Amino acid sequence: MDFDPNEPRPGRFREEHYDPFRKSSPAMQSAAWILCILSFIFCWICYLSIPLGALAMILALLSRGGGRITRRVRSLVIAAAVSITLSAGLTGYAAYRVYTTPRLRLLLEQMIDQYLGQGQDPYLPGLSDQTGGDFA
Amino acid sequence: MNLTRQELKSRARGELTGHYGVLILAQLLEIMCALVFGSFFVYRGGGIWNEYIALAGTLVVCLLLTVLRAGFSYLYLQLARGNQIQVGDLFYCFSHQPDRILVVCLLLFLLICLAAVPVTLIRSALTLLAGRLLFPAAGPIFIAFTYLLRILSFLSIYLLLMLHYGLTFFFCIDHPHWKSTALLRESRERMRGRRFFLFRLLLSFTGFLLLSVLTFGIGLFWVRPYLYMTLTEFYLENE
């Protein structure tokens, strides 16, 4: 190993006046707030609200830089956690309601049938008669 | 070693502040390179020779991408030392002895293969035992169990290598005159006695990684730099 510890290497040593501990990012905090608010607004769409809330939480935690968690960051993290919980709760409640209410469950089954190609559209058999194709 | 895990992470966050833009751009560039060059060698049928060509091409692309990824180590090292960085620094390793990185990569691949033998044997034995004793019906729970075993075996190999050779690329950049085997040896030596510390350091990112999963991977654009910068700080403290 012919390594000389005194040999010059590019960018080898830290700059003397560089203090990473004090940096924080207000821009990231603002972005986190916006994401958090969007997460609340779209809390009834879980696949939009949960990612937005989670991203808000990540940005909030990273925005403090080298410092401690401030009150502002803590409130942001709590707000994001609440929006994620709210969204998950709403989705869970909606799923529970659909599966326990016979009318809603029937609607869901009809939607699944239509999605899978076994549609309940009354016009489709007529269309099959006219065109000779099997649309139903 | 004076800094604790929290101090290392705090230092990493501080140094990353204001530089996420460049790092996110660099990651996007890496993804684009992987997609573009990877798409050239997708097997589209048409005989065994086409399959071999696709395999060889994929291997070449993987090696090139490893050299590109080693450029991230340079980026983070520059940032940790308070220097300015730019997206072009990602290609630093292509112009500074890429052959050493390729050899390190091939040696690491061999080590992965060696580590995979006992892990695969243990996994197969566990799958066989579970199939006989726990889930004789071989239902969906058994399939989930086998997938869990696969994930665990992959993680154990990754951790094993990371805890031994995680600093190799940093040494590669800082010591341009060292041979590839010397780099691996030095990384292993330097990690002696620090593996459990690094293991706990990596484990402390679980929360962030779970949050990234919730964002469908978008959060990784911020979490990955954080993780690698902390690893860079760990390297600098052990230098």
The quaternary organization reads as heterodimer
Q: List the helices and strands of chain B in order.
A: HHHHHHHHHHH
**Overall mean confidence score, pLDDT of chain A:** 79
Which structural class is indicated by helix and strand composition of chain B? Answer: mainly alpha
Radius of gyration of chain B: 20 Å
The sequence of SSEs of chain A as H and E is HHHHH
| Class from secondary-structure proportions of chain A | mainly alpha
| Uncertain residue segments of chain B | none
- Tell me the number of helical segments of chain B per DSSP (H or I, 4 or more residues long): 11
Characterize the overall form of chain A. Answer: elongated
Largest interface: A-B, 34 and 33 residues
Ranges of chain A where pLDDT stays below 50 over 5 or more residues in a row are 1-13
Provide an overview of this structure.
The complex is a heterodimer of chains A (136) and B (239). Mean pLDDT of chain A is 79; it is low at 1-13. Chain A has helices at residues 26-41, 46-63, 71-100, 102-115, 123-131. With 136 residues, chain A is mainly α. Chain A is elongated. Chain B contains 11 helices and no strands. The longest helix of chain B is centred in the middle third of the chain and has 37 residues, at 98-134. In chain B, 79% of the residues lie in helices and 0% in strands. Chain B has helices at 5-16, 20-40, 48-80, 92-95, 98-134, 140-165, 168-174, 180-191, 195-203, 206-214, 220-237. Classes of the chains: A mainly alpha (136), B mainly alpha (239). The interface between A and B is medium-sized, with 34 and 33 residues.
Write the layout of secondary structure elements.
The complex is a heterodimer of chains A (136) and B (239).
Chain A: H1 26-41, H2 46-63, H3 71-100, H4 102-115, H5 123-131
Chain B: H1 5-16, H2 20-40, H3 48-80, H4 92-95, H5 98-134, H6 140-165, H7 168-174, H8 180-191, H9 195-203, H10 206-214, H11 220-237
